[in-house]
């Protein structure tokens, strides 16, 4: 028998104490992808994220990207409630009483300071917003909650070149969506680590793209998976690429899937589109799936042909994600009634590798 038992037990997907341990350990320690630099290019542009239970604000402060705890130092109003937006350039202003923070998170502008607080320079500095480490690989922006740890370059290890290559070869997302799934984040990840489910779950969507072959390359805690692309799908992408003027990223004739441990997954289709997914735990048995779709560079901007291709790709992606979501939520419900670890076949080795990584890191 080639199959083996999963290293994780049903409780790993259900128990509040395991959720808390992953949040405060794994997710606080690891660099988390928060978005592309493109969304933060303008001074005053910002995005907000919840990482390891912490509300995080990433904002372009006078041309530099900074990550702060999204909480005012005065009476703790959330500084930003939207998921993204663009302030007029200048200091970061709290919506409650108007404290204004400089690029280091120091409240330099406090309305009525002299009469009401009498804070001097040093006291203001002591009230600086909590800052988190932020680092980039090309246009990929990452934040870490823990103050200390390995550099982003060290964390991505052998995949540094690949990330730079993707950053150079692909445009800003044409679609960006966040959707809540009623499943543990690991069930979402496991689902993208095998193509075994494709015949049963995606007969009319993903199955029309990939040919069923599968090769896995583990790299430290990360892993790569390669699937062949069906000839019809290859022809479709070649036609679309020609029509839109896409410059296919070199060396990606297959479907290439990278898992950057713990929760960033990037799928590259025929070198002409990437899907960048994060699996963000929100509560025990719940996560938010956030995905972005980007086309290869070179596409002529605007135009009906490009619109039609983007609409088609968005719809295909929505279909296959709703298929995945339905089955993952069924697995979550089923896991609550399971009394032993799941079984993993030889074609699910990448999941076994993910579990081993979890065990070593958690
Ligand atoms: S809570 Fe932010 S200025 Fe008062
Ligand atoms: Fe799937």
General description of the model:
The chain has a seven-stranded antiparallel β-sheet. The protein has a five-stranded antiparallel β-sheet with strand order 6-3-4-5-10. The chain has ten helices and 20 strands. The protein has about 350 residues and is α+β, with helices and mostly antiparallel strands. The protein has helices at about 15-30, 115, 120-125, 150-155, 160-170, 185-190, 200, 230-245, 305-335, 350-360; strands spanning about 5, 30-35, 45-50, 55-60, 65-70, 85, 90-95, 100, 105-110, 130, 135, 140-145, 175-180, 215-220, 220-225, 255-260, 265-270, 275-285, 285-295, 345. It folds into two domains: about 30-150, Rieske [2Fe-2S] iron-sulphur domain (Rieske Iron-sulfur Protein, 3-layer Sandwich); about 160-360, Alpha-Beta Complex (Naphthalene 1,2-dioxygenase Alpha Subunit, Chain A, domain 1).
Question: How many separate structural domains?
Answer: 2
From the spread of the alpha carbons, the general shape counts as globular
Name the average pLDDT: 96
Cα-to-Cα separation, first versus last residue: 29 Å
Q: Give the % helix.
A: 25-40%
What is the ordering of alpha helices and beta strands?
EHEEEEEEEEHHEEEHHEHHEEHEEEEHEH
Strand order of the largest sheet: 13-19-18-17-16-15-14
